[in-house]
Design a protein that fits this description.
By secondary structure, the chain is mainly alpha-helical. It contains 11 helices and 2 strands; from the N terminus they run αααβααααααβαα. It has a two-stranded antiparallel sheet. The protein is globular and about 55 Å long.
């Protein structure tokens, strides 16, 4: 086992190396979550496996529509074009690495920390702290300008309200994974670590406010508008469900 681990960490294959680079922080996050959950005497509900079927279905639907909407709009406006296709050895390994990265980020941001703050204090500080943490993790967006920074912030809020709507961390994890996996590794329209490849070559045309410029679609104001619309839609669905519940009583 130790030999296999060493081979992964020292592999010259970029896909295997990246997979290992994503596994290490994920394992650390799982251990961290378990230790603090035990310290709290298992009183913090983590929503890790609750409503799993709903979480998977809603997360898949959300991820596809969330990514597909701005891509379709930008394509219709001739802001983006797909030109050319690359050969990616071990494509499945790259996709798995993206999945591990999404799981790690969601556990860190909307796992133990979020649930602990929400249960001990209130949902407002839980949202503020974890949104700040998520934004800090994507520090490059802060340096890129107001729109990229607002996109990261609203992406975090969207994933948080999706968690609250489904009662399961699975939903935002799946949506987050699809955004990165399809958006970055397949379409080449989302920015990940520099060594991640992309299957298709996406060109960005016109004004940076629409195209996103160097930040790709995550720097586009179209994504900001889409994020805000989906946040509002899920909020209204939650409100309707709450009003319906109290109306029945």
């Amino acid at each position: 086992m130790m030999s296999a681990t060493l081979n992964l960490s020292t592999s010259k294959n970029p896909a295997i190396w990246r997979l290992w680079a994503e596994i290490i922080p994920l394992l650390a996050m799982i251990i961290f979550t378990f230790i603090f959950w035990i310290i709290e005497k298992k009183e913090i509900g983590l929503c890790l496996f609750s409503h799993s079927k709903k979480g998977i279905l809603v997360g898949m639907a959300m991820g596809i529509v969330w990514l597909g909407t701005p891509v379709a709009i930008l394509k219709a406006m001739n802001i983006i074009e797909i030109n050319g296709k690359n050969h990616i050895p071990l494509l499945a390994v790259w996709i798995l690495a993206v999945f591990f990265n999404a799981v790690m980020q969601e556990l860190l941001v909307r796992g133990y920390l979020y649930q602990m703050l929400k249960q001990k204090y209130h949902i407002v500080p839980a949202v503020i702290v974890t949104t700040g943490l998520f934004t800090f993790l994507h520090g490059g967006a802060l340096e890129a300008g107001v729109i990229p920074a607002m996109n990261v912030l609203t992406m975090s809020l969207l994933m948080t309200i999706l968690l609250e709507y489904c009662g399961s961390i699975i939903a935002p994890t799946v949506a987050h994974f699809l955004w990165n996996g399809i958006g970055a590794v397949i379409l080449g329209g989302v920015s990940l670590a520099d060594d991640y490849p992309h299957l298709f070559h996406m060109d960005f045309l016109g004004n940076d406010l629409l195209s996103g410029g160097v930040c790709k679609i995550e720097g586009s104001i179209v994504v900001l508008i889409v994020n805000c619309i989906f946040i509002l839609i899920i909020f209204l669905l939650m409100k309707k469900r709450k009003d319906s519940y109290f109306g029945e009583r």
